[in-house]
């Protein structure tokens, strides 16, 4: 029997015939006929569970994928992996992305499947699945669960989670009663699916389609839309063909497709988190994505999609306006059209049959962009030798060339204890700095969107320059500099900043500087002492092997290039 389907990767008892006989016996205990067990096997990796609201309709998708697999002559076998529900994890979901990637990789490799469908959606699940599948090397295709529909409050449309933040800021400013913020809370996330704006989940869905790892049109149908189920059925059918063609992901995810995906990330005004994820995904195949390259591509890519948090609309509108296909066609002159896709055609071939309708309220033409260039940029300087990220498209333009006095918080706990103190010494032109919130410091939480101090909110201040080594939710907005690297917790220059220092940021020059002599910064850092590392378990593994944000926060030993070292050993080396 050929080494495929159930005979693939036998359990080792030292007797191949016995292994196969035993596997068949147990497979038959699930009620499968011999004919069914002869079919190619499509694994369906699921990441649902009671702690993941976004993946609530996974069972429906499994049914639809299975229908597609069976119809195309395969045998669908579902298997669970870790689920990462964004709001339900502590300290952050990013800490567990690599754990999920390892789970996905090992289970794809260990179990007898000829191809795999990856059903994910909530922020970290899609990158984790792609990272794992790329490393496992079997034919794979992604299926996202789809975005939520919007709700409404007092006639105003609401969608998680840009509106969560806007309404919470109004509540903090005293404009909303407890009762009314409670009603907002009940209407922010009203269906299954991922956040309704261009947050990390939506960004990764679009990036995955642009990478060629999901079917054309797979990114945008809402979770509760019938089209979502039709895409699922088609994905299952295509997975059977992928198995027959042995079309492995390394033939799809190439430098060309990664650059196409980066163009799309920028053109949708996507999440800063996706830069980390795309870097990690590419790294699994030895493709290096540097922050300098991000700036080159950002300088020539317009923002065309008018979705929150950069614009006005929601994912359901992007879908109705033509989705990723319409966007790709608008971007075509900037794309590498010979890139392969999981559908078996090149990107160029795909774009030759995208429907003509485009909703111009939502998807602008290249001639009339929402933002001309530089939606997301990397900044460098003595405060971020390895780089930092700024989502310029979602910030107050007034703050893009700014110098101000630092107001420093040394940790998340410090910030939460003092940010709203009435006697906090802070003015609107100051620069809020948060230290020790990077990958090692705190698991890199989405805390880079530091709250505006209450006393300034009351004065009408809605944006300030904020700097940290943390991340920011893709649904957030503001003059927020993130991912400062090397991070403070391993002795990066961010650790040297003290309240009263002056900081200058320039979008024009792509600079972020602490206005102190280098010798003074070095002197201050001489006093730096790293906190003790965890002594056991996953926390120990994480602490010893996590790479910096500019390298995708992957574990050094999981990247394709084994010469990379852990962040603690390579800080300052940079990759730009
Ligand atoms: Fe899952 Fe936002 S909480 S995508």
Question: What report would you give on this structure?
Answer:
Strand 5 and strand 6 form a beta hairpin. Helix content is 35%, strand content 13%. With 576 residues, it is an alpha/beta fold. The radius of gyration is 24 Å and the shape is globular. The chain contains 21 helices and 14 strands. The protein folds into 3 domains: 39-149 and 191-351, Response regulator (Rossmann fold, 3-Layer(aba) Sandwich), CATH 3.40.50.2300; 151-185, no CATH class; 377-525, 3-Layer(bba) Sandwich (Glucose Oxidase, domain 1). The model is unreliable at 565-576 (pLDDT under 50). Strands 7-8-12-11-10-9-13-14 form an 8-stranded mixed beta sheet. The protein has a 4-stranded parallel beta sheet with strand order 2-1-3-4, with helices on both faces. The chain has a two-stranded antiparallel sheet with strand order 5-6. Bound molecules: FE2/S2 (inorganic) cluster (FES). The site of FE2/S2 (inorganic) cluster has 10 residues, from loops.
How many strands, what sense, and barrel or not for the largest sheet? Answer: 8 strands, mixed
* Fraction in helix: 25-40%
Beta percentage is: 5-15%
Count of helical stretches: 21
Taking all residues together, what is the mean pLDDT? 94
Provide the CATH superfamily of the largest domain. Response regulator
The CATH topology of the largest domain is given as Rossmann fold
Bound molecule types: FE2/S2 (inorganic) cluster
How many beta-strand segments?
14
């Amino acid at each position: 029997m050929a080494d495929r389907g159930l005979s693939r990767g036998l359990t080792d008892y030292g007797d191949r015939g016995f292994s196969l006989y035993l596997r068949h016996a147990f497979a038959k205990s699930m009620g499968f006929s011999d004919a069914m067990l002869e079919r190619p096997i499509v694994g369906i990796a699921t990441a649902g569970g009671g702690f993941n609201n976004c993946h609530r309709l996974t069972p429906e998708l499994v049914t639809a994928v299975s229908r597609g697999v069976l119809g195309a002559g395969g045998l669908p076998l579902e298997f669970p992996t870790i689920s990462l529900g964004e709001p339900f994890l502590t300290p952050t979901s990013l800490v567990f992305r690599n754990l999920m990637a390892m789970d996905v990789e090992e289970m794809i490799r260990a179990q007898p499947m000829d191809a795999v469908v990856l059903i994910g959606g909530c922020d970290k699940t899609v990158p984790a699945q792609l990272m794992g599948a790329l490393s496992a090397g079997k034919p794979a295709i992604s299926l996202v669960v789809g975005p939520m529909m919007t709700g409404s409050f007092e006639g105003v449309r609401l969608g998680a989670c840009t509106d969560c933040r806007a309404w919470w800021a109004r509540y903090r400013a005293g404009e909303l009663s407890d009762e009314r913020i409670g009603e907002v809370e009940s209407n922010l996330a009203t269906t299954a699916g991922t956040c309704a704006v261009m947050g990390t989940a939506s960004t990764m869905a679009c990036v995955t389609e642009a990478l060629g790892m999901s079917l054309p049109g797979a990114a945008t149908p809402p979770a509760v839309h019938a089209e979502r189920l039709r895409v699922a059925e088609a994905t299952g059918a295509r997975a059977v063909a992928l198995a027959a063609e042995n079309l492995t992901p390394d033939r799809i995810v190439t430098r060309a497709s990664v650059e196409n995906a980066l163009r799309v990330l920028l053109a949708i005004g996507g999440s800063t988190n996706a830069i980390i994820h795309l870097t990690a995904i590419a790294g699994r195949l030895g493709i290096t994505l540097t922050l300098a390259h991000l700036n080159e591509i950002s300088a020539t890519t317009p923002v065309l999609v008018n979705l929150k948090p950069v614009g006005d609309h929601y994912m359901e509108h992007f879908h109705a306006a033509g989705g990723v296909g319409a966007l790709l066609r608008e971007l075509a002159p900037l794309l590498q059209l010979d890139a392969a896709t999981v559908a078996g055609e090149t990107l160029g071939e795909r774009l030759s049959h995208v429907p003509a309708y485009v909703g111009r309220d939502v998807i602008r033409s290249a001639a009339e962009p929402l933002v001309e260039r530089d939606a997301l940029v990397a900044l460098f300087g003595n405060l971020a030798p390895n780089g930092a990220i700024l989502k310029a498209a979602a910030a107050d333009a007034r703050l893009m060339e700014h110098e101000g006095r630092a107001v420093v918080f040394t940790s998340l706990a410090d910030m939460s204890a003092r940010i709203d103190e009435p006697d906090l010494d802070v003015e609107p032109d100051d620069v809020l700095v948060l230290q020790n919130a990077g990958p090692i410091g705190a698991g890199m939480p989405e805390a880079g969107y530091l709250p505006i101090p209450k006393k300034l909110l009351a004065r009408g201040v809605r944006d300030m320059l904020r700097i940290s080594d943390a991340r920011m939710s893709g649904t957030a907005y503001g003059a927020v500099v993130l991912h400062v690297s090397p991070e403070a917790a391993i002795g990066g220059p961010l650790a040297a900043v003290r309240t009263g220092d002056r900081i200058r940021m320039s979008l024009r020059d792509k600079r972020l500087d602490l206005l102190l002599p280098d010798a003074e910064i070095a002197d201050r850092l001489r006093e730096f002492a790293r906190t003790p590392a965890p002594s056991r378990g996953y926390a120990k593994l994480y602490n010893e092997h996590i790479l910096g944000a500019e390298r995708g926060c992957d574990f050094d030993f999981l990247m394709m290039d084994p010469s990379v070292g852990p962040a603690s050993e390579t800080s300052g080396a940079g990759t730009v």
